[in-house]
Amino acid sequence: MCNMKYPFESIELKWQKYWKDKKVFKTDLTKVDNKLYVLVMFIYPSAAKMHIGHWYNYGPTDTFARYKKLKGFNVFEPIGYDAFGLPAENYAIKTGIHPQDSTLKNIKDIRTMLERMGGMYDWDAELMTCVPEYYKWNQWLFLQLYKKGLAYRKNAPVNWCPSCQTVLAREQVLADGGCERCGTTVIQKNLTQWFFKITEYADELLEGLNKIDWPEKTKTMQINWIGKSYGTEIDFAIEGSNEKIRVFTTRPDTLFGVTYVVLAPENELVQKITKPEYKDTVDKYIESIRSLTEVERTSTTKEKTGVPTGAYAINPINGEKVPIWIADYVLATYGTGCVMAVPGHDERDFEFAKKFNLPIKKVILQPGTKEEDELIEAYTDVGIMINSGKYNGLSSDMGIEKISDDIEKQGLGKRTVNYRLRDWLISRQRYWGTPIPIIHCDKCGEVPVPEDQLPVVLPYEVNFKPDGGSPLASCEEFIHTTCPKCGAPAKRDPDTMDTFVDSSWYYLRYLNPNYNDGMFDTELANRWVPVDVYVGGAEHATMHLLYARFIHKFLRDIGLVKSDEPFQKLIHQGTITNQGAKMSKSKGNVVDPNEFLSKYGSDVFRMYLMFMGPYELGGDWSDKGIVGVDRFVQRTYTLFENYKGIASDTQAKSKYEMNELSPDEKKIYQKVNQTLTKVETEIDNFRFNTAVAALMELLNELKNIDNCRKEIQLYTLERLASMLAPLAPHLAEECWSLLGKKKSIYEESVWFEADSEALVNETVTIVVQVNGKVRTKIELPVDTPEKDVRNFVFNDDKIKSYVDGKQIIKEIYVPNKIYNIVVK
RNA sequence: GCGAGAGUGGCGGAAUUGGUAGACGCGCUAGACUUAGGAUCUAGUGUCGCUUAGACGUGGGGGUUCGAGUCCCCCCUCUCGCACCA
Questions:
Q1: Nucleic chain B: which protein residues 235-254 of A have CB below 7 A from it?
Q2: DSSP character for A115?
Q3: Is the shortest CB-to-strand distance from A227 to strand B under 7 Å?
C-alpha cells in the first residue's frame, strides 16, 4: 500500500500550467451548437484578497461550468473586474494611493487567486471596466439614451450620502436609511442630476419576468419594486380658487366616503391655497418635516402628523365640501402627491382621522355586518356600496368601474396606471468612474460630446480629496473645453456615472473585449446571449439585475441585440457568515482562505465549501468538517496511486452484462452507475453538497475493488476520475493521468453515460408494518408478485406474533416498498 | 406591521409522488497497527431501556391518513425582503 500524501501544491501548479499553455479553456465562440454561457457576477476589486465569499461564489459556479463542459457543451465562462467605484477612491483618500494604481494591483492579485482556485476561465475574454476601451462605451450608451430622451437632467430632491460625498439612487439606500456602501445615514438634498428613464420600460420589465427562469423571490422583489397599480385620477375643485386638486386613487368606489383631502407638504399647491390665518402653522409644519430624513418620514411606526390649510375642496361626485390638509404620510413623489382621504376604508386615513377628529363615513358595507354598526377599524375589502347615491347596492368592485366610467364621461378625471419605480439616478460626484459625455455651453446649453470624440478620458492627475463637489470640477485640463456646436469655451460635466452602468452590459462585452467597431460584437451577442446561467448574490435583485434588464431592452430597441432578456436562468448563492454576522473588513471577522489553501490546497477548499450545505442557503463558516473532505481526497489519491498505469495494458468496455460480473464486481458496477446519475442530477441543480456525498459513498463502496478484474477496476476508476473532475479539477486530472491516460480529461471532455440496466437493484427490502409501525424487513427480488410477498409476510414469526388472534382490517401493499397490516 | 423562506442527533446537513427519519461528513467511543500518533485502518454512535423485546423521536399544540419531516389549522423562534405607494 502506497500512502504518499497528496502533493497538492505541485499538482495544482502543474495542471494550471497545462491548462494555460494548451489553452484548454479557450472557448471557440464560432461554434454555437451546444453553446452554454455560464456567467458569475464579475468581481469588485476593492481589496487584493479573495475572501471566503468570493470562493463560495466562484468555486461552485466553476464546478457547474466544468461539469457542463465535460458533458460536451461548448461552455463560455469568462471573468472580469467591476473596477470603478467608491471603495478604491475612499482608499485613495485615506492612503494617497491612486485608485487606478491600487485597482490594477488588486486585479493582478485577484487574477492569481482565481487561477489558483482552478477556475475554468477563458482568459482571452477577461475585461475590466476602468479602462477607456471599456468605459468609452458607457459614454456611447449614454449618448444613445440621450438621443432617445432617455437620459435627462432634472433638479430633484436626491439621496445624499455625507460620507461618500455623492448622491445615490433610491434602491441604493438601505431600509434603515443607510448608504448601501458605507451605512452612513443618507440625507435629502436638492440637486440637478442625470437620470436614465427606466420608468419608460416599467411595463416591459414587469412582463419580461414571465419569460425567465429566476427565483420566485427575486421576481417578486422586482415586481414590488416596479409597483404597478391601476387607478383613477380625479379632480377636486378648490373652493374660491381656479386651481384644482388632482388625486390618484385605486378605490374610486369609495369616493362618497371622502371626508378630507391631503396634500404632500412639498406640493406646490400648498402655498397657493393655504388661507392666510393658517399660513404660519403650515410653514412651521413644513419646516419641521424638512429636518426629518426620508426614512423617518416614511416609517410606518411613526405617528402620522399634519395640519389643516384652511382651504376646502369640493367632492366632484356629490358636491360635498371637505377640508384640505397637509400631512407627512402623503408622498410628493408618488401618484399626484394628493390623496382623497377615506378614513372608513383606508387604514392610514382612519388612523389620521381618529387622531384629528375628522369625520369617518361608511360607504362600503362589510358582508355580515349592519349599516349602523360602528367602524372600529378601516374596512378595506370588497363589500356592498352604501351612502353612495345612485351607486348604492352595487358591489364595490363593480363600483370602481362604474364611478371611473362616469368620472371619465364627465371629464372630471381618467383612469391611469402608477408605478413605484422611479428613474435611475446615475450621476455621482466622484472621481473614479466614467465621465459623463456632456459639455455645458453658456450659449448652447447641454451639448453631447460627438461620438467620434469619445472616449472622454478620465484624467489621472486629479485632486480627489472630498471638498463637497465633484473632484473633476477642479481639474482644469479636464473641465475646460470648447463647445462642439459653437466653438465657444465651455465646461465638461464634472460628474461620473454610477458603476451599475458598467455592469449593465458587461456580459455582452465579454464575447470580445477588444472589439473596436462598437460597444460589442452584435453578431456574437445574438448567438450567445442571453446568458444561460447567471450566478450572483441576491442583494442585486432590485439594482444590478433590474438595470441590466433595462439596458438590455434598450439595446434591443436600438437594434444591437435581438433577445429580450439578458439572463435566462438565475441562481443566487447563499451568504457565508461568521458567527452569524456578515463578514466585513470593518467588523474584522473576515476569514482568510489562505490558511486553508496552504494546508489543504484549493481542491479540498472549494470542495469543502460545496460540501458544507445547500448552495443557495449559505451558512455560518466553520472549518470543522474540512478534514473530512481532505481525507476523501487523500483516499482517492491513494487509490489511484495503487492502480497507476492500469490503462496502458487494460481496456474497459463501455458496458458490461450484469450476469457476467462477480458479486463484488456487480456491487461496484451498480454503485458506479448509480453514482453517475446521482452526480448528474445533483450538479445540474446546483446541489453540490449531495454530489460530493455521492462520491464519498462510491469511494466507500470501493473497498473490494481489489477483488475485481482489471478491466472492471479501470471501468470504475475512469468514471470516478471523470465525476471528480468538476468538483476537484486538479486532483481529477492527476488521477486520470495516473491511470495512464495521455490527454487531459478536459481536452477530451470525458463524461460517461450511466448503464441504465445497472441502476435498479435485483432485490429490494420490503418493510413490513403492523398498524403503521415497522416490525420487520424482508429482502425479496424486485417485483415479487403481491401474493408471494403476502406469503412471506404472514410466515414471518415476528409478524405472526403481532397478527395472530387479531382481526385483520386492511392490508396495504406498496410494490417494492412497504407491506402494512392493520389489525384490531 | 406586511410578504417570503426556514426550524431534523453533540455539530454541518440527507431524505422522488406522504411509504425504513438521520445518507454523507465532523465529533465522540472502543479496538488494530505502532517508539509515538493530533497519521492510518476496523467497528460502533438519535434518546430512554441500555442484554433483549420495546417505547419515544424531525420547534410546540391539534387534525387528515393504514402510514406525516413531508399535507391542513393554530402558536413560537430565526433569517431575508418591503416599510404609510393612496
A1: 248-251
A2: H
A3: yes
Chain B: positions less than 7 Å from a protein CB are 1, 3-4, 11-15, 19-21, 23-27, 40-42, 54-55, 66-68, 80-86
Query: Which nucleotide is closest to A328, CA to C1'?
Result: B84
Instruction: Supply the pTM of this predicted model.
Output: 0.93
Radius of gyration (Cα) for chain A, nearest Å?
34
C-alpha cell at A460: 489621472
Query: What are the grid coordinates assigned to A577, written together?
Result: 457568515
Q: Do residues A816 and A806 lie in contact, with contact meaning Cβ atoms separated by under 8 Å? A: no
Residues 631-650 of A with CB under 7 A from strand B: 631-632, 634-635
Residue A26: band (very low, low, confident or very high) from pLDDT cuts 50, 70, 90: very high
Query: Does residue A492 surpass a pLDDT of 80?
Result: yes
Q: What is the reported pLDDT for A2?
A: 40
List, in order, residues 6 or more apart from A112 with CB less than 8 Å away. Answer: none
Residue A161 CA and nucleotide B62 C1' are separated, in Å, by 52
* Contact (Cβ atoms closer than 8 angstroms) between residue A536 and residue A573: yes
CA dist., res. A548 & res. A530, Å (int):
12
Residues 122-181 of A with CB under 7 A from strand B: 171, 174-175
Look at residue A226 in the predicted model and tell me its pLDDT.
93
**d(CA A45, C1' B86) / Å:** 44
Using the CB atom, is residue A335 less than 7 Å from strand B? yes
Helix (H, G, I), strand (E, B) or coil at A500: helix
Query: So what's the pLDDT on residue A332?
Result: 86
Q: How far is CA A631 from CA A567, A583, A690, A699, A702, in A?
A: 38, 28, 17, 11, 15
For residue A205, with 0-12 CB atoms within 10 Å meaning exposed, 13-18 middle and 19 or more buried, which class applies? buried
Beta strands A763-770; A818-823: pairing state: parallel
Long-range contacts of residues A215-222, Cβ cutoff 8 Å, at least 24 apart: A215/A538, A215/A570, A215/A571, A215/A572, A215/A616, A217/A538, A217/A541, A218/A538, A218/A541, A218/A545, A218/A570, A218/A572, A221/A541, A221/A542, A222/A541, A222/A542, A222/A545, A222/A546
Contact A462/A494 with Cβ under 8 angstroms?
Answer: no
A772 CA – B72 C1', rounded, Å: 21
Instruction: List pLDDT tens digits, range A432-481.
Output: 999 999 999 999 999 999 999 999 999 999 987 767 678 899 899 999 99
Predicted ipTM beyond 0.90 = yes
What's the CA–C1' distance between A822 and B55, in Å? 20
Instruction: Say whether pLDDT at A586 is over 80.
Output: no
Cβ(A338)–Cβ(A330) below 8 Å: yes
Q: Which of A132, A29, A17 is nearest to A78 (CA)?
A: A29
